[in-house]
Amino acid sequence: MTPTLTISRLTKRFQSVEALKQVSLTLAPGKRAALLGHNGAGKSTMMKIVLGLIPFDGGEVSVCGAHPGSASARVQVAYLPENVAFHPALTGEEQLRHYLALRGENPSQATELLSRVGLTHAARRRIGTYSKGMRQRVGLAQTLIGRPRLLVLDEPTSGLDPVSRRDFYDLLDGLSAEGTAILLSSHVLTEVEARTDRILILSGGELVAEGTLADLRTRAALPVAFSVRPAPGHAASLAAVFPEGVQGDDGLLRLSCSQAEKLPLLARIAALESAVADLDVIPPSLEDIYSHFSRRDGQ
Amino acid sequence: MSRILATAMSEFRIAFRNRWVTIATGMMVLFALVLAAAGSAPTGDVGVDRLSVTVASLTSLAVYLVPLLALLMSFDAVAGEVERGTLPLLLTYPVSRLQILLGKLLAHLAILGLAVTLGYGAAALAAIWSDPGAIAGLGSLWRLIWSSVLLGATFLGAGYALSALARRPSGAAGLAIALWLVAVVLYDLALLALIVTDGGGAFTTHALPVALLANPADAFRVFNLSAAEAVSVAGGIGGAAGTIPLGQSAASLLLWPLAAIAFAVAAFRKVMP
Ligand SMILES: Nc1ncnc2c1ncn2[C@@H]1O[C@H](COP(=O)(O)OP(=O)(O)OP(=O)(O)O)[C@@H](O)[C@H]1O
Ligand SMILES: [Mg+2]
Fold first, then answer.
1. Which of A34, A204, A296, B272 could form a disulfide with A192 if both were Cys (CB 3.0 to 4.6 A apart)?
2. pLDDT in the model for residue B235
């Protein structure tokens, strides 16, 4: 299957800032990729280049087989900018009717689009009176116009409440099932973990990691933490068995080991039987994995 | 075409909500009525009908007001979108920058057309009411209306270009006012000064007609005055109108909007969101 989006060795610099350095990636139809990275990592810059809004200095970008920003690419790509804005004097419905007309669709679909993002009640109110989350929903609604083959969403869930976030990802699931490729950026790791196929981590303009969360977890090989609660009276004996452990004020003994040592260590603890009251195995958190990759080149 | 119309619809709606339609129409009607009232004292002893005289004075009014209204409506067109942050999203839609500008132009021209038609219409009604024979001047009224729309198109295009060059509404507003002052006020003052110092010499006979055609506002004035053969009542710079063939001032009126729009599109293409 030919990829919807192909980026190879993309380089972009703004005067003194090198915003993107030799970034390469591909996105197949129906796949959802999440772009993560610190503030100023280059996420928005990459998206604007994919949309043809700003030129780039080196490398190649192909969007649905066309040049970014070309007429044929624009027909097939929908975009949600970060901090999306609309003219405050128009109502949500009028704004969407306008966007529908610009895409050559029937403007009467505006009502249905607004109901898909839960804005039916405010359709006839001016956007100037909308809350931030409501404006964000208008932004989402306009990305659903037509049948885009590529969705580029810059922090799409910013400003959305938790329930709306879930509804939003449900909407994305439907679109990707129909073959739309989705590239989104986010700072919320938990939602990205559950609702996307692939994670891309940008750091200082470089693509430092790419893969499913499971891939990244393995590659990071971060230590697994154990938290052991000794049975009453056994604290000292436990500490003697595991001299590498750290005894906390809360009476818990904390141990850590590599992925490969996890099962042997578990067996050793289990062998102590009644000396152990309770045991928790804490895998590296998303934040741990993310910071491992994101900070790799000394941020 | 449908994209241009959709853009025009949206722009018209926005202009209406921002009271631009009311302001433009109100201003034109008010000034036209004041002119009609002021000009009603001398009767038709210049040998032309009442309406043609009114049209001649409306022409002098339009030379100032139409460019002003056009610049006021257009200076925000690109800079405002940049400032509000609506431009990046718009530019990812399958619509060209030319289509966006043409859509805005269509809406703004419609508003301008409405304003001048109502304004001049009110003055014409006043003229016809006091002198039924003034009906004979309807042709020159119609000419004044469409040439005002062309003049407006030139300054709308110039306003879009300044808006794209400035990228910030405050800067664009400053440039628009400067353009209005230079093109409509200072240019004529400079010409007048030159005529006076020249005293009917080479400048007045050779350079002046070219200088008048080179300025859209003067071309508009010359066109309407010479077409109405009302040159005698105009005097001043208008007095030179008689020496310029009608076809030339008409060509200037038609070419200026095209040049202004082309310039605006070129400037808009340089705007990076
Ligand atoms: N128009 C510009 N001119 C100069 N530098 C720019 C411009 N746009 C972006 N940059 C720089 O490029 C780098 C990447 O910015 P970008 O907006 O892509 O970051 P981001 O990953 O989207 O960050 P955030 O998470 O804060 O949205 C930053 O250092 C930024 O200062
Ligand atoms: Mg960003």
1. A34
2. 52
Predicted ipTM of the assembly: 0.87
Tens of pLDDT, residue by residue over B7-36, are 999 999 999 998 888 988 998 899 888 887
Confirm whether A291 is domain-assigned.
Answer: no
The total number of structural domains in chain B stands at 1
Distance CA B149, CA B253 (A): 10
First-last CA distance in chain A: 37
CA distance A78 to chain B (A): 7
Q: Are residues A17 and A148 in the same domain?
A: yes
What range defines the domain where residue B155 resides?
A: 2-269
Q: Does some domain include residue A293?
A: no
Residue A296 lies in a domain: no
A181 and A228 share one domain:
no
pLDDT of B44 reads 46
Atom 16 of ligand 1: nearest residue by CA position? A42
With b for 16 or more beta-carbon neighbours within 10 A and e for fewer, the B205-243 pattern comes to eeebbebbbebbbbbbbbbbbbbbebbebbeebbebbee
Residue numbers of the domain that contains A32: 5-218
Residue A109 belongs to a domain with what CATH number?
A: 3.40.50.300
Q: Taking the model in full, what pTM does it have?
A: 0.88
Residue minimizing CA distance to atom 1 of ligand 1:
A14
Contact at 8 Å (CB) between A148 and A180?
Answer: yes
Q: How many domains in chain A?
A: 2
All residues of chain B having their beta carbon less than 8 Å from the beta carbon of residue A89 are 13-14, 17-18
Ligand 2 centroid distance, CA of A82 (Å): 6
CA of A158 to the centre of ligand 1 (A): 17
The pLDDT-based confidence of A55 (bands split at 50, 70, 90) is very high
pLDDT value of position B238? 55
